[in-house]
Amino acid sequence: MDAKKVEEQLAQTLTEGEMEQQDTTEAARKRLPIKTEIRIQAQVEPVVEETKLYRQMAEEIDNRYDRILGRNSDDNKK
Fold first, then answer.
1. How far is CA 17 from CA 8, 13, 20, 40, 65, in A?
2. How many whole angstroms from its chain centre is CA 1?
3. Is the distance from CB of 46 to CB of 69 less than 8 angstroms?
4. What pTM was estimated for this model as a whole?
5. What is the DSSP string of 12-59?
6. For residue range 41-75, what is the model confidence (pLDDT) as tens digits?
7. Distance separating alpha carbons of residues 67 and 47, to the nearest angstrom
């Protein structure tokens, strides 16, 4: 097919019949993200518990996890 014929056929297809119209408010509502959130409240912090277990097995060289353990113990005091 010639490029001109393809272009004419496309223009004819696009202009034939009535244009479909959507309800704009309904279309906008469908595009909105769902407002659900799932939260699970834990009684213990898994990282802290795992760190405590590892500290029972071995000695930590640089105490890099003290910050995490300290933050969690402050949360438990509240």
1. 16, 9, 9, 53, 69
2. 47
3. no
4. 0.32
5. HHHHSSPPP---HHHHHHHHSPP--------SS-HHHHHHHHHHHHS-
6. 888 888 888 888 888 888 767 777 777 667 655 55
7. 12
